[in-house]
Specification:
Number of helices of chain A: 16
Structural class of chain A: alpha/beta
CATH topology of the largest domain in chain A: Aspartate Aminotransferase, domain 2
Number of domains of chain A: 2
Distance between the termini of chain A: 48 Å
Shape of chain B: globular
Strand content of chain B: 15-25%
CATH architecture of the largest domain in chain A: 3-Layer(aba) Sandwich
CATH architecture of chain B: Alpha-Beta Complex
Helix content of chain A: 40-55%
Largest sheet of chain B: 3 strands, antiparallel
Largest sheet of chain A: 7 strands, mixed
Strand order of the largest sheet of chain B: 1-2-3
Number of strands of chain B: 3
Helix content of chain B: 25-40%
CATH superfamily of the largest domain in chain A: Type I PLP-dependent aspartate aminotransferase-like (Major domain)
Oligomer: heterodimer
Strand order of the largest sheet of chain A: 2-8-7-6-5-3-4
Number of helices of chain B: 4
Number of domains of chain B: 1
Number of strands of chain A: 15
Strand content of chain A: 15-25%
CATH class of chain B: Alpha Beta
Radius of gyration of chain B: 14 Å
Order of helices and strands of chain B: HEEEHHH
CATH topology of chain B: Sufe protein. Chain: A
Structural class of chain B: alpha+beta
Chain lengths: 402, 142
């Protein structure tokens, strides 16, 4: 993989030549091809979809539906099973609102402390409102989700497992296939938060056999404002929409509405058309690089970074065994927000705080962490600058000791 | 280094050795910043329109925690109207607007924060909590 060449494909580096971007877990940078495809829509056929009588609308509809097919193929599903949303959060809220109608008071929802807030909060609120039992699957000593602990948690009342594929703080890959198999043996459905997985690994929903799966465009080189909710067609066909309005119905009368077949019944109103087209371009871009190369590159960077950081005194790393390119750490006795002050000065972007996953920072018994995450446009020089700045930060705060 | 303007000795001293830390049960106000985890509660004992005592508690970065400590010293003994005036001057200073130094005393060490927009909230969160506390009519302690 030629990182120098890749960097030339991301216009943000033209405007910030000294940028060291280590916050791809929050959002990835956007390659020029994605921006160009969205510009092309706006400047050449930027009209609404499903207004079929004129050519441009036909073009827009085609591009939007082609994007859906591309997403479907990308995760090995069918176009009917791909619902476009604005992001993972909307996908996860939507499925919680729709699926909870199938549940009864006393039914058990299993979640984990590794979840992003968007995976757990909808079910926390639903449990309070509808009387479901919310249960946390205990993590192992390293903070990992294991099949063994899942087996111990499942009860006769368990109906739903809402679970992350890759933790946004710890970077662990959940052993999902085995967990999903066991969940199905116990008549549970599984909702997967794949927001942090999709940038780093090939997802095959058929192989996983998950029931629902959600991810966002903006973490996989696509634009903001587009997300995906995958659902098995057999399940989606039995759910009622949350949003009603334009484009989701076939016929409307005074007291009745016939809704469109899946997935369109779940996409009321004008959708993020340009963003869907941008997402399709991002998929092409990722496919051209290939996940095998992405994984190999990230592993090299992670090994290199961990090796360098472990030689620095005064750093606590929380996830030495991360599966993807993410390091969560603290500089001893320095608050994460203070620890990143110097990073900001040097145009190094890292995240400091809870990462929208307060349950795991509480589990780690800390007031947040600093998180550096790596992706295809990062190189060894980025890591060098990053680790040099860690040393400099520790030295800087030493002057106030004593 | 530019961050020398942010992390001053006085600030780090208040961070490591906070004054008036710990609540005694007077009327209080709590503010949180979920994006970074700052979580500050300030309380005041007020009688005859005077802030007789200001205390604080919570957690956060050095700028946030030290600022609560500095404020608790700067505003103790001031009348409510004086305190409001000083809080307003503090905001102006942080926003790099023209401000009066009167009454700010040690709090002027936060002038450097104006060069760091991402940290303005850290410096002001405790001041805003106190402003909310004294802002609404019924402030006298029973």
């Amino acid at each position: 993989m030629n990182v120098n060449k890749i960097r030339t494909q991301f216009p943000i580096y033209d405007n910030h030549p000294n940028l060291t971007y280590l916050d791809s877990s929050a959002t990835s940078l956007t390659p020029r091809v994605v921006i160009d495809k969205m510009n092309e829509y706006y400047s050449e056929y930027g009209v609404n979809i499903n207004r079929g009588v004129y050519l441009m609308s036909h073009m827009a509809t085609e591009a939007y539906e082609n994007a859906r097919s591309k997403v479907a193929e990308f995760i090995n599903s069918d176009s009917r099973e791909i619902v476009f949303t604005k992001n993972t959060t909307e996908s996860l809220n939507k499925i919680c609102l729709m699926y909870q109608k199938k549940l009864l008071p006393g039914d058990e929802i299993i979640v984990t402390e590794l979840e992003h807030h968007s995976s757990v909060l909808p079910w926390q609120v639903a449990s309070k409102e509808k009387g479901f039992k919310l249960t946390y699957l205990p993590l192992d000593d390293e903070g990992k989700i294991t099949l063994e602990n899942f087996k111990k948690t499942v009860s006769k009342k368990s109906k739903v497992l809402a679970i992350t594929y890759v933790s946004n703080v710890m970077g662990y890959i959940t052993p999902l296939k085995e967990i999903i198999k066991y969940a199905h043996e116990n008549d549970m459905i599984v909702i997967v938060d794949a927001a942090q997985a999709i940038p780093h690994m090939q997802i095959d929903v058929k192989d996983l056999d998950c029931d629902f799966l959600a991810f966002s465009g903006h973490k996989m080189l696509g634009p903001t404002g587009i997300g995906v909710l995958y659902g098995k067609a057999t399940l989606l066909n039995n759910l009622e929409p949350i949003d009603y309005g334009g484009d989701m119905n076939e016929e409307v009368s005074l007291y009745d509405v016939d809704i469109r077949p899946i997935p369109h019944c779940f996409e009321a109103g004008t959708p993020p058309i340009a963003e869907a087209i941008g997402l399709a371009a991002a998929i092409d871009y990722i496919n051209a690089i290939g996940y095998a190369n992405i994984i190999e590159h990230e592993e090299k960077l992670l090994t290199y970074a961990l090796d360098k950081i472990s030689k620095i005194d005064g750093v606590t790393i929380y996830n030495k065994n991360a599966d993807i390119g993410v390091i969560s750490f603290n500089l001893n006795n320095i608050h994460p927000h203070d620890a990143t002050a110097l990073f900001n000065e040097k145009e190094i972007c890292v995240r400091a705080g809870h990462h929208c996953a307060q349950l795991i920072t509480k589990w780690l018994k800390c007031d947040g962490t600093v998180r550096a995450s790596f992706y295809i446009y990062n190189d060894y020089k980025d890591i060098d600058k990053f680790t040099d700045t860690i040393r400099e930060t520790i030295k800087f705060f030493k002057q106030f000791e004593g | 280094m530019r961050i020398n303007n942010l992390y001053r000795q006085v600030i780090m001293d208040h961070y490591k050795n906070p004054r008036n830390k710990g609540l005694k049960g007077f009327r209080s106000s709590r503010l949180r910043n979920p994006s970074c985890g700052d979580d500050v509660t300030v309380e005041a004992r007020i009688s005859n329109g005077v802030l007789e005592e200001v205390n604080h508690d919570g957690k956060g970065c050095s700028i946030c925690c030290s600022s609560a400590s500095v404020m608790s010293e700067v505003l103790a003994g001031k009348t409510i109207d004086e305190a409001k005036e000083i809080i307003s001057s503090f905001y102006k200073m942080i926003k790099n607007e023209e401000f009066s130094e009167e009454g700010l005393d040690e709090a002027v060490v936060y002038q450097g924060v104006s060069q760091f927009p991402a940290r303005m909230k850290c410096a002001t969160i405790s001041w805003t909590a106190l402003e909310e506390l004294i802002g609404d009519g019924e402030v006298e302690q029973k």
